[in-house]
Amino acid sequence: MTDAVRSAYRERAGEYTEALGSLSAMAEGDRNFIAGWARDIDGPTIDAGCGPGHWTKFLHDHGVAVEGIDMVSEFIDGAAARFPEVPFRVATLEALPADDAALAGILSWYSLIHTPPADVPALLTEFARCIRSEGTLLLGFFEGGQIEAFGHAVVTAYYWPVPLMQDELAAAGFEIVETHTRVDPGQRPHAAIIARRRSWIR
Ligand SMILES: C[S@@+](CC[C@H](N)C(=O)[O-])C[C@H]1O[C@@H](n2cnc3c(N)ncnc32)[C@H](O)[C@@H]1O
Questions:
Q1: Sheet-wide strand order for 45-48
Q2: Residues ≥6 apart with Cβ < 8 Å to 40
Q3: What's the CA-to-centroid distance between 182 and ligand 1, angstroms?
Q4: pLDDT at 34 over 60
Q5: For 86-108, what is the mean pLDDT?
Q6: How far apart are CA 192 and CA 141, in angstroms?
Q7: From which residue to which does any coiled coil extend (predicted)?
Q8: What is the pLDDT of residue 108?
Q9: What is the mean pLDDT of residues 70-89?
Q10: 146-180 burial, b if ≥16 CB within 10 A, otherwise e?
Q11: What is the CA(135)–ligand 1 centre distance, in A?
């Protein structure tokens, strides 16, 4: 599935960046939520699955020591050209370029939406490996009443119920700090969760 997602985004990286790669195309509620999270981040952070890199640039401009990573080199090349002051590199969510407990934060903004649901726990565990005690993860995704596939414009994506995602986060070593849901007219339901890495020493 990762290969299918990579190929699909490779073909449409330019189109995606044109349509969705700017902050002006983002909901004000999302900008405020992410900015609020950024205020509490103090240390190295990864924008995991950064796509066009506009959120990476946003975090950078909010004083976060952030690097954007994505498996699609077309996105990374485009982001590096548009935002030369921000670090970007090609990498995968399965093996983030960070040592154990090295990060203060991870933004995963709609980057797990294409992951087959059975593979989501392993990626959350990889996020947990990289985040230090008390560091936080901000996860954005499509909310639904059940885990269900749908025909996303780029490639198959999945709705997740908030309680099930919260359970997966808890199982991976996080505690829920804040959950936000919203339905904008004409848009799919949105959810965002801020989760704190539980202490490594228990
Ligand atoms: C819906 S886009 C979101 C992009 C960006 N975060 C945004 O908000 O516009 C999903 C992104 O996640 C990336 N992605 C999905 N699975 C990945 C994986 N296993 N490793 C690295 N990147 C991945 C895709 O390449 C794509 O850029």
A1: 88-90, 66-70, 45-48, 103-109, 131-142, 190-197, 174-182
A2: 136
A3: 21
A4: yes
A5: 98
A6: 6
A7: none
A8: 98
A9: 98
A10: eeeeeeeebbebbbbebeebbebbeebbbeeeebb
A11: 22
Q: State the distance from the centre of ligand 1 to the C-alpha of 110, rounded, in angstroms.
A: 7
CA of 202 to the centre of ligand 1 (A): 33
Name the residue of 5, 33, 34 to mutate for ligand 1: max ligand atoms within 8 A of Cβ.
5
For ligand 1, atom 1, the nearest C-alpha belongs to 110
Q: Which domains does the chain have, with CATH numbers?
A: 2-197 (3.40.50.150)
Residue written as token pair 């996105």: 75
Q: Which two tokens stand for residue 55?
A: 């959120």
Backbone angles phi, psi at 46, to 5 degrees: -120, 135
Decide: residue 191, CB within 10 A, 0-12 exposed, 13-18 middle, 19+ buried.
buried
Expressed in angstroms and rounded, the spacing between residue 163 Cα and the centre of ligand 1 is 23
Cβ-contact 112, 141 below 8 angstroms? yes
Atom from ligand 1 closest to the CA of residue 9: 25
* Res 1 pLDDT > 90: no
Rounded Cα–Cα distance for residues 17 and 172 (Å): 32
What lines the ligand 1 site, CB under 6 Å? Answer: 2, 5, 9, 20, 49-52, 55, 70-72, 75, 92-94, 109-111, 113-114
Work out the average pLDDT over 137-150.
97
